[in-house]
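Quick entry between incubations.
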Amino acid sequence: MGVITVRFKQPSAIPGFGLALGYTLFYLGIIVLLPLAALVAEAADLGFGGIWAVATEPRVLTALRVSFGLAFAAALVDCVFGLLIAWVLTRYQFQGRKLLDAAVDLPFALPTAVAGIALATLYAPNGWIGAILAEFGIKIAFTPAGIFVALVFVALPFTVRTVQPLIAEIDRSVEEVSATLGASRRQTVRYVIVPMLSPALLTGFALAFARSVSEYGSVIFIAGNIPYVSEIAPVLIVIKLEEFNYPGATAIAVIMLAIAFVVLFAINLIQAWSRRRFGRG
Amino acid sequence: MAEQISHAPHSLSVTTESAAVRTALISLALLFLALFLILPVIVIFSEALQKGLFVYFATFEDADAQAAIRLTLIVAGIAVPLNLFFGIAASWTIAKFEFRGKSLLITLIDLPFSISPVVSGLIYVLLFGAQGYFGPWLKAHGIEVIFALPGIVLATVFVTFPFVARELIPLMEEQGNTDEEAALTLGAGGLREFLTVTLPNIRWGLLYGVLLCNARAMGEFGAVSVVSGHIRGLTDTMPLHVEILYNEYNFVAAFAMASLLTLLALITLAAKTLLEMQYGEALARAPRV
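Done. Structure below.
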């Protein structure tokens, strides 16, 4: 029996592997891994007790609740409207469809600070939308509702763009079969189409949620940043840094990363489960 | 025959909604997009131009505004080529070779996308800030990183890190190695092969990645805000200057500066859409989110 050698790299005629890999690892190391290691080291210095002490500060606790609660709500709303927009853009022909399709990526392209001041101006009590809502006694800007509006804006492309390719891929004959078997259009949508799209919707939700939790630029202008009311966790990180409280800032960052990781892990589990159940994802 | 043809459109209705439902759904989608996406863009230009074109252009004569524009151009001018070069090296490694730990490498390259902008700035403060790990050493040698240009560049490089690589990796994987192998068999050297065969194959994907990378580099706010120190005329990029002007209630100037960034976003979107329409075949098929 020969010795089994485990090769690091498959043989190839193409040159430059060592150089390209070396540079990739070097650059990745100094730009991404070293700074992240600093975060891990700082968190290790704090220890679990230190992080827990910061996490249970009332102001931090409220900010975490605001951040995660509103990110969840915004991702949910983006799933509903993302599905609707993706459906309309893929299935229907109408004037200006291409233009709208391109416009969906606007929140990706528009700098967050620009989106922030635009939304704050629109929804302020004297703004175009804010003035109309003020007549009904509804206040958006400088309340948690303002944060929600900003998050719905920044995360929308994630749900649209994850669902859209799947809608385009749906085999129309499946819908025909469903109709032939006597299903109404409503039943076909409810029992055939939505289950087919649900794994993509879940992915879209996860991406939208992750983006919303970490969002800063578009939120701070419309939020008003009132402690215990409309203050998000990233704002608290900035405040702690301005006080040169590095451990405090690190603790909040680590807690945010941990909660986001748990949520995304849970979503992955649900997805693995639904893939087993429905055969594909 | 004629009767059958007239029935044809009817048979389609089993795989679509009734005209009324269709109109309602389209209207709802249009209303949502108009309210949430189009209106903010209109309000930017309307606020910037509320006192007329003369006042609008006058805001750019301010020395601090010009310094902010210059700094943004410098930062993007350093960060984008760095990430472009890295993107080519990373995609060459990952797409052209089989090796262990490849998927881990791909995950690590994508990592900056899943980190909050504020945390992206924080990690550099922890390294290079006054009380950071290298802080005392940098201070002893008179090197400024945080609250100076190097910190802003580093934070920008971090947040735009994956753009070019993640566009090129799937594209080069789809294209395979046959072109490269043919060129090598015909006697081309490694560098010549890359410049005459690989580079032309990936040029549209490369441009696509650079466009998105540049838009983000010029527009980044959170990460840069943490490391910049907001020194007017010195460490103020365009998005940071928008914030300063807005907080000073100087709305015309704030929205004027914002309108430049909006134009950049609109041009980026237009170029991206054009690339997808014209050269969709030469871009990665993988969905991008």
